[in-house]
Amino acid sequence: MTRIIKSFFSRSHIKSFAVLLAAASLLMSGGCKNAQSDESGTLRVGVALYSQDDTFIATVVQNLERMAQEREGQEKIKINLSIADGHSNQTTQLEQVERFLERGCDLLCVNIVDRTVAAVIVDKAEEAEVPLIFFNRQPVAEDIQRWDKTYYVGARAQEGGTLQGELVLGAWQSDESFDRNGDGVMQYLMLEGEQGHQDSLLRTEYSIKAITDAGIEVEKLASDTANWNRGQASAKMSQWIDRFGNDIEVVIANNDDMALGAIDAFKEAGLELPLIVGVDATAPALEAVASGRLYGTVLNDAAGIADVMLDMLMALTSGADLSEAVKLEDGHYVWLPYRQVTRDNLDEFIS
Ligand code: GAL
Ligand code: CA
Fold first, then answer.
1. How far is ligand 2, taken at its centre, from the CA of residue 258, in Å?
2. 178 CA distance to ligand 2 middle (Å)
3. How would DSSP label each residue in 136-199?
4. What's the pLDDT tens digit per position in 132-147?
5. Which of 237, 274, 278 lies closest to 254 in space, CA to CA?
6. Per-residue confidence band for 186, with pLDDT thresholds at 50, 70 and 90
7. Are 332 and 144 spatial neighbours (Cβ–Cβ below 8 Å)?
8. d(CA 29, CA 242)
9. Domain locations in the chain as residue ranges
10. What spacing in Å lies between the alpha carbon of 136 and ligand 1's midpoint?
11. Which of 55, 199, 298 to mutate to test the pocket of ligand 1 (most atoms within 8 A of CB)?
């Protein structure tokens, strides 16, 4: 009898101690409740975007919304996605991140405006104990490694550049009419994304490297940044068309929107299209590939990014092993593969 009473008392002690602990940890975490403590069973995700006007980023968001809904059905949970548009302003974005953390969330997904200043966001997330995923715009490794619950989900910029260069190379080698002046040299233009963005720097470098590594001589007529933007690329290209006209043999654009802008400019000038390639495989780009205006593109896996982030949400909030849910490299990175898209395999990409 005494034993029963004793064990009853000690168990209730343990219980109240646990309640105290839980309350204390809730206070310490700045009031940001985690998934297990939310009785409604709702998982809250704060998503901060560098700019929602960006076609590729808008595609990631559409996928995220659709896939979150699908999971709600499958897993009998609620996923509450809050999306904030940073309008390309780091100060605005930082305020949005702070608001997410104050209101409480289970996961923070950040498409950072300025990839050199990730440390302050990492520190804020760590203080609130909210796991943090950066995506698409890659912070420096030092910042990612600052806290063990900081991750990056994206594709390797260098790989995208190489695949894009190989697309151009294959076309060039299989059809000599691309060499308009028949001098054996590839006269090209480069449309670059934002300055300082890993995808601009590395796609620019590695696309050309793939071509020159194969022994093809190239001549850069001009290059400039058009900030991923169709209108800016079209304006730039109009100026280049005035200067170089039919000397332009190849246009390499760091993304599809700029490639489409180049196509717009050629159409407006009434000139025959040179060999043009992009990256992303957005819906309008796939249409342009289908109609033959865009020679090819490289799939930047928007759906993959969304899917991985949701896998991570589920694992992080259920206490499951993250490295079993996703392919985690160096404890922090999930890399998605790029894929070449041309008219030949277009079917695989049209959903
Ligand atoms: C790149 C993408 C661009 C643009 C940029 C924004 O990966 O190719 O179209 O979305 O990210 O960070
Ligand atoms: Ca030539």
1. 23
2. 8
3. SS---HHHHTTSTTEEEEEE-HHHHHHHHHHHHHHHHHH-GGGSTT-SSEEEEEEEE-STT-HH
4. 999 999 999 999 999 9
5. 278
6. very high
7. yes
8. 60
9. 4-155+301-320, 157-299
10. 7
11. 199
pLDDT of residue 38: 54
Ligand nearest to the CA of 299: 1
CATH hierarchy code of domain 157-299? 3.40.50.2300
Residue nearest to atom 11 of ligand 1 (CA): 136
Per-residue exposure over 321-338, b if at least 16 CB sit within 10 Å of its own CB, e if not? ebeebbebeeebbbbbeb
Q: What is the pLDDT of residue 39?
A: 59
CB 54 within 8 A of CB 47: no
- What's the full length of the chain, in residues? 351
Q: Kindly give the distance from the C-alpha atom of residue 185 to the centroid of ligand 2, in angstroms, as a whole number.
A: 4
pLDDT digits (tens, 9 = 90+) for 54-96: 999 999 999 999 999 999 999 889 999 999 999 999 999 999 9
Q: Is the CB of 34 under 6 A from ligand 1?
A: no
135 lines ligand 1 (CB under 6 A): no
- CB of residue 300 inside a 6 A radius of ligand 1: yes
Beta bridge partners, 81, equal: 45
Whether the CA torsion 267, 211, 336, 121 is positive or negative: it is negative
Index of the ligand 1 atom closest to the CA of residue 282? 9
Residues 173-198 have a mean pLDDT of 97
**296-299/339-342 β-pairing:** antiparallel
Class for the domain spanning 4-155+301-320: alpha beta
Say yes or no to pLDDT of 269 above 60. Answer: yes
Q: Which ligand is nearest to the CA of 259?
A: 1
For residue 14, the model assigns a pLDDT of 42
Q: Do domains 4-155+301-320 and 157-299 have the same CATH topology?
A: yes
CB 83 within 8 A of CB 106: no
